[in-house]
Design goal:
The complex is a heterotrimer. Chain A is built from 13 helices and 2 strands. Chain A is mainly α. Chain A has a single domain, classed as MetI-like fold (Orthogonal Bundle). In chain A, helix 2 crosses helix 13 and helix 12 packs antiparallel against helix 13. The model of chain A has no long low-confidence stretch (mean pLDDT about 85). Chain B is mostly helical. Chain B has 15 helices and no strands. In chain B, helix 11 packs across helix 15. Classes of the chains: A mainly alpha, B mainly alpha, C alpha/beta. Chains in contact: A-B, A-C, B-C. At the A-B interface, helix 1, helix 3, helix 4, helix 5 and helix 7 of A face helix 1, helix 4, helix 5, helix 6 and helix 7 of B.
């Protein structure tokens, strides 16, 4: 890609709207958040004192912050793995069937459109220990379901509620990936007598690996940043802090707890993590584009 | 199909149908709950089959008011949600097309810097920087306005990034040919680039519409005038009742209504959506 | 015909907007549901009663959403004149001296007749400064009581409501034996099982008069009484006497479905319970530990009060003052109290409600009022004034959950909570001194 237009002023004009919006609604507030991280301030902004790195020191000496990092990792990978496995299973099945493919696809993709906050509410009700149909069913099956008390069950609940929406998206990609697998390869293997399962694991799955990797990144990013509405609607980070992810913690400390300095420091750390992830992802995608 | 194994086909259908049933479970429950009086929920056990209070609930919610504490009917808030979602969608697509165009097809000083500045916005959700963003919007006197609802959410690079990927894959010869024909940058943009990005635009339309429609924390913070209340936000409001009953039946009906437009968009545009998504990933 | 109607509406609107420009007063509140409707009704009644001012109530979501919205608005100089702030936000509001307009001062400045002694001291004490001057106007106050299922009690052969926690234990055992699956559950665990537990036994929750004495206050809720209580509840969680149902009042479902026979919850939960309980229920005072205190003290309040924010015109403040006076009128208060289940804030409203025979017609509604107004509030029962209280409650919730789940013993959990909570207090002290 080297062919370009020679104009010098025009590109600036084209970029202007986006740069303007970014500067005003992202950089300006982000800069304020950055500044805030070095100050101790009361909620109303009446008094303000420079405290250097104290907010960060408090953050990094707080064992709960590391726990929240761990929670975030467990949560994100659970969402990614559960969501992708189920979607892959459904996609493989949908790829096999001849009749009703589009109907199945239609009936599986709609949850993608549902607001995380609403999805959270619905699942929360289904799993409510004293009235939720699923919880009651689990109880009759001998599982003492109480996510208000049991941190692992709370984690399962947020993972289910977050995964639900994401299955649609994963399903679409896997299905497209499966349909791109050359039939001739599979037919050749079938003639060699390979069972459908063997064919899947030795031929199809390896061919899906770029899609799988792409989805892994997308799902992790989703679980990291876009599930705060789900957590807020289901467990509010509890019990204890067993479902408090990093982003939920920023929201909870800043928006609910009004600890602006502390939550700003967390935002800065998040930005750093994001920056790092972006660079890695960017390098990967850049290389992929160049090679293809 | 390579060979015919009836049991496998049967298993496939069975798995798919189970999957669909599981996925639809929450909506089924919402639908059933909306046909019972609110107290059915409070009383402890959620009914699994329809009741007879449905007509009343749906009538109230649609045409009178969505629920206690939210005095506007659902259709009115849908309108606001629609304006907000479409504002975000079109705004973002427009500015992203232009900026991706500038970054890919022009060479100018600080090009990379510009790209990185835009790129930085990619993954810091508005919830995380919400208080300072609120101050900025308030300083610009944009509280209680459609501009205030949409503009701050447009500042994200997802779309720019996708278009950049798409443009990068356009063969250089095409640009060369266009230039030989004497096509200026604008003609190239409208006659070649836009048609080529059609599926991407469609996919983004779906993604952004859903994103815009589903916002709740931002509208909750910046609106105090019910002329600007959006639907998802109002559901959150109806849910957070202090010392009182939650009107579950109305909330469930409103929730289902709030799902309809984005679901319709996804399903209606699924062909283009899938194609656009899958193409841009490649 | 239709067009004519429309035209008259348009004309009407333009008159309304140009002719009499009543001074508009924004009131941000957190009252959803039926109470929210009532708030609108109250504002409308005030607006109809005069035409100089127009109070515009705006529902801003739950308590934290309302408070954070108001603070964000203040930072951007877009604040409403009146905002409803929950009791845990009191210290934050008080400390923001440049942001609030103390109610006693507002009333004086705008020449409104204002007699602080007309209010119930158990309510206003929470919102007054050390000189006894009211900084905010109590609006919706409540106090925890015990609701019990009379039907289940009868079935288990129990004739009396439990008075003490010892009673709760023995009654629960009888209930469990009769086939009920849980003795009691609680709403708002920190408020009821720690803050009010301490007040009821006249034990400090925090030093310096529970924080009323200054920002240097330190948490004290890891004392023997609290530890014993929490330890006991941990045991009860194991043997079924107690069943944890979350940090807010979601436990109501367990009470409605008759899974749990007793429920400690805010007095303001009365209306909801009355609507949803398909059984006969009674209201008893919050239990206390026999032997730990001779005469149980008054409980402390929860709920919210109305704060007036700085930055508005004199004219607006005059309107605010007259609205607050209107709110305190016995008839308005009595109506609000009877409708919502919140406590009356003036003696006159209490007397009026009695006169109207409301308590007789609705047995149990007076329990909270009586319990809260017994005796004179002491330093331990006036209320709590702690900075960053929202976070401290979060810390306490986490600690209690760790005891209920059996992970940690009560002493360790409460020690940790005190330590983490004190860190929040020091942070608040540093930001606000």
């Amino acid at each position: 890609m080297t062919v370009t237009f020679p104009q010098k002023g025009l590109p600036w004009l084209l970029l202007l709207p986006q740069l303007l919006v970014t500067a005003i609604f992202f950089l300006w507030p982000a800069e304020q958040a950055l500044e805030q991280a070095f100050y101790q301030e009361d909620a109303f902004g009446l008094s303000r004192e420079f405290i250097g790195l104290e907010n960060f020191a408090a953050l990094f000496t707080d064992p709960l912050y590391y726990q929240s990092m761990l929670t975030t990792l467990v949560f994100s990978f659970s969402v990614a793995i559960v969501g992708m496995s189920l979607a892959l299973l459904l996609a493989v099945m949908a790829d096999r069937v001849i009749r009703g493919k589009l109907a199945y696809q239609t009936l599986l993709i709609w949850p993608y459109a549902v607001a995380p906050a609403l999805a959270g509410v619905l699942w929360w009700i289904l799993f409510d220990p004293s009235m939720g149909p699923i919880a009651l069913w689990l109880k009759s099956a001998g599982v003492d379901w109480n996510h208000y008390l049991n941190g692992n069950q709370a984690m399962i609940l947020v993972v289910i509620a977050s995964t639900w929406k994401q299955i649609s998206y994963n399903f679409l990609f896997f299905l497209a990936g499966l349909q791109a697998v050359p039939r001739s390869l599979i037919e050749a293997a079938a003639i060699d007598g390979a069972s459908p399962f063997k064919r899947f694991w030795t031929i199809v799955f390896p061919l899906l690996s770029p899609t799988t990797f792409f989805l892994l990144v997308v799902n992790l990013v989703y679980a990291f940043f876009e599930t705060f509405g789900v957590i807020d609607a289901t467990t509010k980070g509890g019990p204890g802090q067993s479902t408090t992810t990093l982003v939920y913690k920023v929201f909870n400390d800043g928006f609910v707890g009004l600890d602006l300095g502390g939550s700003a420091a967390q935002s800065v750390v998040l930005m750093a993590i994001v920056g790092l992830m972006t660079v890695i992802q960017f390098r990967f995608i850049e290389r992929k584009v160049q090679y293809s | 199909m390579i060979e015919n194994r009836p049991w496998l086909t049967f298993a496939s259908h069975a798995t798919l149908l189970t999957g669909i049933a599981l996925v639809a479970l929450p909506v089924w429950m919402a639908l059933v709950a909306s046909t019972h009086p609110a107290s059915a929920f409070g009383a402890g056990h959620i009914p699994l089959w329809f009741g007879d209070a449905g007509a009343e609930t749906w009538g109230t919610v649609l045409f009178e008011k969505a629920g206690n504490g939210v005095d506007t009917p659902v259709w009115f808030m849908m309108l606001n949600s629609l304006i907000m979602a479409l504002g975000i969608t079109f705004g973002k697509i427009a500015i992203s097309l232009l900026s991706a165009y500038a970054i890919v097809f022009f060479r100018f000083p600080f090009r990379n810097l510009c790209f990185w500045i835009i790129f930085m916005t990619l993954m810091l959700p508005v919830e995380v920087r919400i208080v300072p963003t609120y101050e900025v919007v308030a300083n610009l006197d944009l509280l209680n306005s459609y501009t205030g609802l949409t503009l701050p959410l447009i500042a994200s690079a997802t779309a720019t990034f996708l278009f950049r990927q798409c443009f990068l894959s356009i063969p250089g010869e095409l640009v060369e040919a266009a230039r030989m024909d004497g096509a200026g940058p604008w003609r190239f943009f409208f006659d070649i680039l836009l048609p080529l990005s059609r599926t991407n635009i469609a996919a983004l339309f779906v993604i952004l519409f859903i994103y815009g429609w589903n916002q709740y924390l931002w509208p909750l913070l910046i609106t105090t005038d019910d002329a600007y209340y959006t639907l998802v936000m109002s559901i959150k409001r109806m849910l957070s009742v202090t010392d009182g009953d939650i009107a579950w039946n109305q909330i469930m009906a409103t929730t289902l209504l709030a799902m309809l437009p984005p679901v319709a968009v996804v399903i209606g545009m699924q062909k283009l959506f899938v194609k656009g998504l899958v193409d841009s990933e490649k | 015909m239709h067009n004519l109607k429309l035209a008259s509406v348009v004309v009407g609107l333009s008159i309304a907007s140009s002719g009499f420009a009543a001074t508009e007063i924004e009131w941000w509140h957190a009252m959803g549901g039926a109470n929210g409707e009532k708030v609108n009704e109250i504002a409308k009644a005030f607006n109809d009663s005069q035409d100089a001012y127009e109070v515009k109530p705006v529902y801003k979501g739950n308590y934290t959403e309302t408070m954070t919205s108001a603070i964000a608005a203040f930072r951007a100089k877009q604040q409403p004149a009146i905002v409803q702030v929950f009791e845990v936000g009191t210290a934050s509001m008080m400390a923001a001296k440049g942001a609030i307009y103390p109610v006693y001062k507002l009333m004086k400045d705008s020449g409104q007749a204002f007699d602080e002694s007309a209010y119930l001291s158990a309510v206003t004490g929470y919102y007054s400064n050390s000189d006894g001057q009211m900084l905010s106007m109590p609006f919706n106050s409540s106090t925890p009581v015990l609701y019990y299922n009379k039907d289940l009690f009868k079935k288990a052969g129990i004739s009396q409501a439990p008075k003490t926690w010892q009673d709760v234990e023995s009654v629960s055992n009888k209930l469990l034996a009769s086939g009920v699956s849980c003795g009691f559950t609680t709403a708002w665990q920190s408020w009821i099982q720690l803050e009010n537990l301490s007040a009821r036994h006249n034990v400090p929750f925090a030093s310096l008069e529970n924080g009323f004495g200054g920002l240097k206050t330190e948490l004290k809720f890891n004392g023997p009484l609290q530890v014993a209580h929490v330890q006991k509840m941990g045991e009860w969680q194991k043997n079924g006497i107690f069943s944890y149902s979350g940090r807010t009042n979601d436990g109501a479902a367990k009470f409605y479905s008759q899974e749990c026979a007793m429920f400690t919850e805010s007095s303001a939960g009365y209306a909801g319970i009355k609507r949803n309980a398909k059984f006969d229920f009674g209201v008893a005072e919050l239990p206390y530990w026999e032997g730990k205190v001779k005469q149980p003290s008054n409980t402390i309040i929860g709920g919210a009060s109305l704060w007036v924010l700085q930055g508005h015109s004199k004219e607006e403040y005059k309107g605010v003052a007259s609205f607050l006076s209107y709110l305190s009128k016995a008839s308005v208060q009595a109506d609000w109290h009877q409708f919502s289940g919140y406590l009356p804030i003036t003696k006159a409203a209490y007397d009026l409600t009695k006169e109207q025979g409301f308590y007789k017609a609705n047995p149990g509604t007076e329990t909270g009022v009586i319990q809260m107004t017994t005796g004179t509030p002491t330093a331990n029962t006036k209320g709590l004034r702690l900075g960053n209280f929202v976070q401290i409650r979060g810390v306490i919730d986490e600690a209690l959950e760790s005891v209920w789940s059996g992970d940690v013993d009560a002493q360790t959990a409460l020690n940790t909570a005190v330590e983490r909570g004190n860190a929040q207090l020091r942070k608040f002290e540093k930001a606000n001194d």
